Amino acid sequence: MRHPIPCLIDTFDAGTGCSTSSTSGSSSDVHRSLPPTFVVLTHFHPGLVRQEPPREQLPQGQLITGGVGKVKTERGSSLKGKGKGRSEIPLYTTPVMPSGEISTDIILRWCKERQEVLKQNQDQYSRDQFSPNKEGISTLSMVLMKQTSSEHDELECIVLGKSERDPTGVADVVSHWMLKLAMAADEDLMKIHCRREMDLLFSRIDNKTNAHIRPNTQALFDELVTAIPDFRTKLQVLSASDLKKIPGCYQYLTACGLVTRGAEPIYALSDCFAYPSLMLTDKSGRRSIPYQGTLYVGPTALKKVAMELYTSAFTADLESLQRCREAINKAKDRRVLGILDALEHAETGLDRAEEAAAGSLTIRTIGEQSRLFPPCMAAIHHHLNGKYTLKHQGRLQFWSYLRACGMPVEDVASYTQRAMAKGGKTQEEWQKQYMYALRHVYGLEGKRQKMEPWGCRTIIAKGAPQSAAGECHGCPFRYLPAKAILPQALQKWYGLKSGDIEDVVTTAGKDHYEVACVKFWHVLHKKRGDASVTGPVTFYTEALEDK
Description:
The protein is of the alpha+beta class.
């Protein structure tokens, strides 16, 4: 028997942001405890939407979604660019949901298509920003076109500037917020997702203007700061003549090298010294100059400032999203949870790994398949078979990866035990010291929850291993010296020549570790230009498809 879906009837006052709500079911206390931040399917935050009264039953696979009420939609303002204080580029600062009914299958397809768009865009954008070329933007447009279905035209319309075509503008907004809710359950996933959305934002900006953020800077900045709680910074776009009207300002900024003879505008940010992340510098010189309580930013640095603001705006409601997710978990609506779980698994690559790697990684094949491992796992593999030991962090990093790639627990145990036996560890000692921990990684002990594989951010954050202590975890692109040891290690592990990895090593030397890893994958698999490598597991599964 299907349970009635808990619903919320809401009246929204656009002026005050207040609402009068009534609920059916036992979830009213849960709903009232959530701030007006986000609306997801049948589980609503007070203050954002109106919804028709609850129905006893819905057709199979159908969900009621909330009406927008008096809130302006992202679609109208983002494509037309006529909304007051709104930029032409969609920033998703206003959570909205469409009226009517949407099939769960359609929602899931929209979200998965958006995931593919974000991953493809990240790969393309990462490569283009380090080796700019005139074909980069058109290539990006083609990638997005390939990943866009006839019911997901919002991305195509915005990226290609075809504002006259907008048959289903809801797909972009729905997929953005559903993915954001799904990723909110894990901090590492949220960071990765935020970065991808940021890359898409600036790809759209670059595609639209082929410059930095000069057009519509004021609207874009204003919309971003309104989404950040208690943010007081104001932005002014100043020409050289404007700067000369400020006593001593023009001369000072010229002496500092911020103002040049060109006609580039300067951006003045007031009251921003409470936000140190905006005080930007880089190896090429000063990005921003403080003068008499105002921060002056050059055009080449404004993109970095916008990145900081977008990250702050993107994560401002993270706590609210997490509470919303808890409310959904308590409601135990399998249809909604099914969507969120599927999106999480698609992000980590677990489902794909189980299908693609089923039966491929065993104790008999791991030696051969190790050439398909990412460097962070190849380093551990070679350390284990050369030093015959694995410290705690290395075991967790490696075992969770092997589990996600489909290697049976018995094979992992035998493989690790045989290697350590060469270092003097007896079978009885190994079983006593390590077997419980391995079974725990596989969800066979404790709370019976499988350990998720470490993502790139987690591995990078672990820092450099202590070689003297026998450690081997972490990211080689970060902890191995780029000019000396890193090239030698990659050549040894994968049988490459030094000329093959020059660009990879250069990128790693600039501290772009994840980008270096993506580039390295393409060095190994030159035939596959459409692969989406987002972490250690997908590095392996994409390599399997290339065999």
